[in-house]
């Protein structure tokens, strides 16, 4: 329909030019009629295109397709607020490239547990709690020796992964959580 509309517009312009050049009122009236038909064809084509789009965006069950936008969850890195957790790396508010307040490398920090990408995805979907120490890069099981004498707090493992914490190699939380969930 859009192609027909474009052709009618060309015809209307040609008739308008001929009508003006020859002084013919009939050609001018026909030019106006062709313009109106072009507008009708354009509207009909736009409606057909919209109908085609709506039928192709339906789900397999026949209902309308619904796109759910991703939910934005603000990070919990507000200094001074209760429940504040400092994810590993530069803290909020530190200028890029400065060392002021950044998590320093600790000699006693355990290595990260090595996990496959598939295991990491499975763990990121779990709701089990792990323990984190503010400013340290690892998450741990409650009974991890690394937590002794350190302030730590519980955190769902999915949130710990989202904040950038990695599993402790000493207590191997990913292996334990996956075996408890039966998803090894």
UniProtKB/TrEMBL annotation:
Identification of the protein by name: Uncharacterized protein
Compositional bias annotation for Low complexity: 91-104
Top-level division of the source organism's lineage: Bacteria
Disordered: annotated segments: 54-115
Annotated source species: Micromonospora gifhornensis
């Amino acid at each position: 329909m859009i192609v027909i509309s474009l052709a009618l517009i060309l015809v209307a312009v040609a008739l308008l030019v001929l009508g003006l050049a020859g002084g013919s009122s009939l050609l001018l009236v026909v030019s106006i009629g062709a313009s109106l038909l072009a507008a009708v064809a354009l509207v009909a084509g736009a409606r057909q295109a919209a109908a085609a789009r709506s039928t192709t965006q339906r789900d397999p069950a026949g209902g309308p397709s619904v796109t759910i936008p991703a939910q934005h969850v603000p990070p919990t890195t507000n200094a001074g607020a209760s429940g504040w957790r400092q994810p590993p790396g530069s803290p909020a508010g530190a200028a890029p490239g400065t060392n002021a307040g950044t998590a320093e490398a600790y000699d006693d920090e355990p290595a990260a547990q090595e996990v496959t990408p598939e295991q990491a995805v499975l763990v990121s979907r779990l709701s089990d709690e792990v323990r984190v120490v503010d400013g340290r890069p690892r998450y741990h099981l409650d009974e991890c020796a690394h937590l002794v004498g350190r302030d730590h707090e519980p955190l769902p493992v999915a949130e710990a992964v989202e904040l950038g914490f990695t599993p402790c190699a000493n207590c191997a939380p990913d292996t334990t959580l996956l075996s408890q969930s039966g998803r090894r």
